[in-house]
Amino acid sequence: MIKPGDLPETIPLFPLTGALLLPRGRLPLHIFEPRYLQMLEDCMKTRERLIGMIQPCRCPGGAKRLSTIGCAGRLTGFSETEDGRYMITLSGISRFKVCEELEGFTPYIRARVNWAPFARDIGLAEHDPGFDRPPFMDLLCRYFTAQGLDTDWDTLKDAEDELLLNTLSMLLPLDPEDKQALLEAPDLTTRRETLVTLMEFSLRGCGEEGLQ
Asked: Comparing C-alpha atoms, which of 89, 92, 91 is closest to residue 121?
């Protein structure tokens, strides 16, 4: 278990559009670019084994930059293919705010980060006291039908609040901007409300009637 005092001031960043990692979530990744293979090698030499997942975003005029908020994951699993690529798993530890990108000799991006705004991320799972599961699951079922998706409904119905809401946030086919909004939600209740809004908006786009 990583404690707040164990979190380093600088971490490597892995920019990946549409990829969302949340605290206590698990994100599988396929690493093959040389610069990120180097990042992985360097990561495994550190005590914390942290990689910061972050989304690129577009500025007015088409310029690209990184989002301000990301989430760091601890390298908890990896396997190497015969051609030198890696399949890895990151376990979400804590969100962070980028303070500055650092100049250096690594082929990948490193940044100085601030963990303080997300101190709640390290600890026990969150709960959502206002979560009314039956209507949420009904909305989710209609969303899955409209999107042509399938799942193990028994597993979803039995999942704890945080596991259910965070897993859906990470896996649903949402736009990168929507994924970022889910990442930046200050608590589990806000994340659930954001998910509901996004699913309802999608259903309206599909022409479903009866949404308020």
From this structure: 92
What's the whole-model pTM score? 0.90
Please, what is the Cα angle at 11 between 43 and 114, to 5 degrees? 155
Architecture of domain 4-121: Roll (2.30)
- CB contact at 8 A, 7 and 99: no
At 31-74, the pLDDT tens digits run 999 999 999 999 999 999 999 999 998 776 666 789 999 999 99
Please give the DSSP secondary-structure letter assigned to residue 212. Answer: -
> What is each CA distance from 11 to 73, 100, 106, 137, in whole angstroms?
10, 11, 12, 38
User: For the chain, what are the domain ranges?
Assistant: 4-121, 133-205
Position 57: which residue type? C
Contact assessment for residue 182 and residue 120, using Cβ atoms and an 8 Å cutoff: no
168 by Cβ neighbours in 10 Å (0-12 / 13-18 / 19+) ranks as buried
One-letter amino acid at 3 equals: K
Q: Which helix (H) or strand (E) holds 181?
A: helix 176-184
The 8-class DSSP code of residue 186 comes to: S
